[in-house]
Please model this.
Amino acid sequence: MTIQPGQTYRSVAPIPDHPGNYRYIKILGEPMTIPGVYGFGTVQVATLTEDGRETRQRSMKLNQLHATATTRDGVPRRTGYVLEDT
Model:
């Protein structure tokens, strides 16, 4: 899976107390994949509001971003973010 700026990801678990509503994030920059450099294994993201505004910019570990909602064994994921179909 290639992580690229502009991609949108959906949280695996719905927002607590709001069943059926999910949190969305947008990738803002290229992943930091150079070993030994500060921020290795992270990417800059922002939370997307319902009207599409980017809020709460932060760094996120790459292992929290997934291509599918299931593991390789077919078990549904419980944590992280799944790539939205674009």
